[in-house]
Every structure is written in structure tokens, then in C-alpha cells.
Amino acid sequence: MIIIQSLKEHEQELIKNLTTDGWKAKAKELEYKDELYCVRAKKKSFFIFNRVHIYVLIKEVTDDNIEELVDLIKDNFFNYHAIWLAADYFSEKVKDFAQETQQIGLLNIDVK
């Protein structure tokens, strides 16, 4: 059974799951024209290496907004190892772009 949640509910579940898995996760407010939530997750590995992942939760990622979303992350975060875009819909060009770029991952979520 698939439970369809709002983006805010997905954000809270993501933070809970990351924290349970040993990450330090907190919401980060970003200015954007559409509803968007962002979570910064950090985890130490091998005593000195910090892994930083940025999760962006949005309704859909298309050819029109992918570059804008990546620029938004670059403008708001000094360093990170991976960007995870969590959305209900990804266009084919976005899927191809993510496959070619090793720093961007896609997470499919069901959004009300």
C-alpha cells in the first residue's frame, strides 16, 4: 500500500529516517517560487571525513527547473558530496542528466 503524503510530511519522515541511521539532519529554508523543502544531512565516516548530502523535496523536476535547482543548492551550500532530488515527477531529460552527473541522485516520492 502506497501512502501519499504532502511534501512537508515527506520532509519530516526523511529527517526522522536519516537521524535514525546516524546522520545529523536538519531542515534548511530556501527561497523558491514553488513549494520546496530542503534537508541537509551530515555524517562522519572514518573519524575525519564528513559526508554532506543535500535533499531537495519538490513536486516535479523538469527541464525548465533542473538548472535553477542546482544553482539554488550551489548558492546556499558551501560544500556537499551529493544532491538528492526527491519528487513525484522527473522528465526524461532530468533522468538522463542525473545519470551523467555522479553528484545528483533522484528519489521518487508520491506527493498529494
The strands making up the biggest β-sheet line up spatially as 1-2-3-5-7
**What is the domain total for the residues?**
1
Assign the structural class, choosing from mainly alpha, mainly beta, alpha/beta, alpha+beta, or little secondary structure.
alpha/beta
Report the average pLDDT across residues.
92
Order of helices and strands: HEEEEHEEHE
> Based on CA inertia axes, which overall geometry fits?
globular
Report the helical percentage.
25-40%
What separation lies between the terminal Cα atoms?
15 Å
Specify the CATH architecture: 3-Layer(aba) Sandwich
Give a count of the beta strands, DSSP E runs of length 2 or more. Answer: 7
Task: Walk me through this protein's architecture.
By secondary structure, the chain is an alpha/beta fold. β2 and β3 form a beta hairpin. The longest helix has 14 residues. The relative contact order is 0.19.
List the helices and strands and how they pair.
Layout: H1 7-20, E1 24-28, E2 36-45, E3 49-58, E4 60-61, H2 66-76, E5 82-87, E6 89-90, H3 92-100, E7 104-108
Parallel strand pairs: 3-5, 4-6, 5-7
Antiparallel strand pairs: 1-2, 2-3
